[in-house]
Write a structure and sequence with these properties.
The protein has three helices and no strands. By secondary structure, it is an all-alpha fold. Helix 1 packs across helix 2 and helix 1 packs antiparallel against helix 3.
Length: 90
């Protein structure tokens, strides 16, 4: 069971990293390339439903902040404690 939680934790951390890279690309368009299309295919399906509920305000896309915050909470409150409790026996 320990190995499963390690994989889940790494997937969450990787997705947070992908979100950060996607945000940087939105600020610095000169960094975009063909690979950014694949990045958008991974990130946009999660951001679009949040954008339906919270539309951009004055050019500021709050969906990124909401998704990043929710994933961070799930990672820190559920995944990491489960990983710790299943891998390290008291």
């Amino acid at each position: 069971m320990c190995g499963l939680w390690v994989v889940v934790e790494n997937i969450f951390k990787l997705y947070l990293l992908l979100l950060i890279v996607y945000a940087v690309l939105s600020w610095v368009p000169s960094l975009r390339g063909r690979w950014s299309v694949y990045l958008a295919m991974l990130v946009e399906p999660v951001l679009v439903p949040v954008r339906r509920v919270i539309p951009p305000l004055g050019g500021l896309d709050l969906s990124f902040i909401v998704v990043f915050f929710v994933i961070s909470i799930v990672l820190n409150q559920i995944v990491i404690p489960q990983h710790f409790s299943s891998c390290y026996v008291y």
